[in-house]
Amino acid sequence: MDPYPSSSQIAQKTWELENDIVSVDTPATSSSADAASDAIFYYDDVAQAKFQQEKPWANDPHYFRRVKISALALLKMVVHARSGGTIEVMGLMQGKTDGDAIIVMDAFALPVEGTETRVNAQADAYEYMVDYSQTNKQAGRLENVVGWYHSHPGYGCWLSGIDVSTQMLNQQFQEPFLAVVIDPTRTVSAGKVEIGAFRTYPEGYKPPDDPVSEYQTIPLNKIEDFGVHCKQYYSLDITYFKSSLDSHLLDLLWNKYWVNTLSSSPLLGNGDYVAGQISDLAEKLEQAENQLAHSRFGSLIAPPQRKKEEESQLAKITRDSAKITVEQVHGLMSQVIKDILFNSVRQSSRSRAEPSEPEPEPMVES
Amino acid sequence: MASSSSSGLTFKLHPLVMVNISDHYTRVKSQMNPPGGDSAAVKAPAPPPRVYGCVIGVQRGRTVEIFNSFELLYDSATDSLDRAFLLKKQELYKKVFPNFYVLGWYSTGSDAEESDMHIHKALMDINESPVYVLLNPAINHAQKDLPVTIYESEMHVIDGIPQLIFVNSSYTIETVEAERISVDHVAHLKPSDGGSAATQLAAHLTSIHSAIKMLNSRIRVLHHYLVAMQKGEIPYENSLLRQVSSLLRRLPAIESEKFQDDFLMEYSDTLLITYLAMFTNCSSTMNELVEKFNTAYDRHSRRGGRTAFI
Fold first, then answer.
1. Where is coiled-coil annotated (chain B) (predicted)?
2. What is the C-alpha to C-alpha distance for residues B163 and B167, in angstroms, rounded to an integer?
3. pLDDT value at position B39?
4. Residues 6+ apart with CB under 8 A from A329
5. CA distance A252 to B143
6. A251-289: string of b/e by CB count within 10 Å (b at 16+)?
């Protein structure tokens, strides 16, 4: 196998630099580097107990700012969320704290059917939780439950009203606690993991500054719920980490994985999600149109703020439509590339006899 | 001990299992060797422990698909498996994943050992033919293959005594889309936020590009091999030639009217969506322009005249 020139590596490094990507794991060149990156796996219960006693978060609602999620936890959560299909699923996360960061080492699923109308679905699963934690401690996983996660299939990563009240309750009695939301449908559609980590403010607390949250499109039937509660919680930065053995395995995994990357077909799997998004956009457009029609006559009297809001409504819709289109175009690009690779070889060209890996059907999602 | 398996079962392994085992191992290892504050005092690191666990999944016909795993308590001094623990764990996992059942067990180490047969036999009352997944945690950057081997047990007659021995089996990595994306995400630590459209495009194309690069390198190896065979440097191997020829005959992969139609339909669907988005974009920009125009002129045009806009 010829070694490929490192120009691609240089390009990758430039890109990483431009995007401020901080590599969380150090290259495992020496055993001390291994030990350093694996040190995060060590559970020091003395330090943890001390931290629990001190409760530095009691004074500062904004105390925790960062979340570090392990590769294992992420994988488990995403797989569990996706396996639920369009049903919300939930589970718990185990880990520990480290200064102003919460570290999530592992996650496990709970056998409850999560619906957005149940206040505390966790109550059903207390027995399960206790059993699971006990067996885990026996098996050598010493961390405590440090948060909960659930999925919002197709409608984005944010906390609904029920979620906010659940989390506020949790933050009163089970501190330190974290809420994580995953959207498996958008993950598959966009090709990157949609995940958000949140903590609520206590009742009546006004955040000192307006937190700048990343924009995401919310379907119309949920947007009210989102709007009412979006000021009651803040999101934390998420970074990921993995052990040296994990990195090694994942690197090697790529040798087998590339087939799946090539044969994946995001367009097929998410057809109805995309259709749903488009119809949702259409509804929003109608709403915006009505508002705009009113404002045209009221523009002489209306204060300038209202005009700005309507404009930004249309701008939001434009952004959403651009996002959907980009995802679709990406999917189509993959299809076209696969078509060129595997369908345009003709038997007649002997000089370019290109044997190829068996590509079962490029259109079928593996 | 390891020859190739003849049971004809195909094994599919999910990456989650591997990450699980690796995490279990790293945890136990770091609890045993707590990170020392100062590097001068080097404690002799204890030999890496062996960890044991169970793998669960589904078996459909001849295909064994391993989805998940959990830890087991095994006391190597007394050679006893903690049964109660195993049953409890099984029960818990059954509640959340009702379709999965115990398929076998895993362990870390570099090679299968005689003592492993004890655990294997112990698990035989849960599953008559358990599989044994062995992960080699030694990080060797030179090796290109996954350090995971799957063993099955077979009854062989050795020296007149029928014995169970481990035989090696091949496996493939199986994944679902969501798993692939998260593995990709963690493996390459991509930025999780949107970034600009350009970075998204770059990221997407980069992943496809690397996959194609792999394909290309594999093809080159094959090509090189075939050329050498043609030149006579390597003796002919008919079975390989047959495989290559059958591969070649499979290209082009699909070539039918129906496929072309469907493909073009999908293509035009995407173009339609792009068109729609463009329209929305244009009307939004138009709207802004009109608003600005109105703001600039309306206030002054009550008398019907246009004032010069400075």
1. none
2. 12
3. 40
4. B270, B274
5. 9
6. ebbbebbbbbbbbbbbbebbeebbeebbebbeebbeebe
> At A217, phi and psi to the nearest 5?
-85, 135
In A3-155, the DSSP E strands lie at: 66-70, 90-98, 101-109, 144-151
Residue B104 CB neighbour total at 10 angstroms: 26
Task: Please give the structure tokens belonging to residue A362.
Answer: 């490029």
Instruction: Sort out which chain B residues have CB atoms less than 8 A from A314's CB and list them.
Output: 283-284, 287
Chains A, B: CB pairs < 8 Å: 335
What's the confidence (pLDDT) of residue A7?
58
In this complex, do A187 and B178 lie within 8 Å of one another by their Cβ atoms? Answer: yes
pLDDT at A264 > cutoff 70: yes
pLDDT at B34: 65
The pLDDT confidence band at residue B282, using thresholds 50, 70 and 90, is very high
Q: At what angle do helices B83-96 and A126-139 cross, to 10 degrees?
A: 140
Per residue in A87-134, pLDDT tens?
888 888 988 888 888 888 888 888 876 555 555 556 667 778 888 888
**Residue A361 contacts B, CB cutoff 8 Å:** yes
Contact B18, A249 (CB under 8 A): yes
* Rounded Cα distance, B100 and B95, in Å: 10
A138, A193, A256 member nearest B173 (Cβ) = A256
**Which residues pair with residue A345 across a beta bridge?**
none
Higher pLDDT, A210 or B246: B246
Distance from CA of A135 to the nearest CA of B (A): 7
What is the SS3 assignment for A151? strand
Residue environment code for A214-249, b if the CB has 16+ CB neighbours within 10 A, otherwise e: eebbbbeebeebbeebeebbbbbebebbbbbbbbbb
A246 reaches B (C-beta below 8 A): yes
CB of A345 closer than 8 Å to CB of B252: yes
Interchain contact A230–B (C-beta under 8 A): no
At residue A181, the pLDDT reads 92
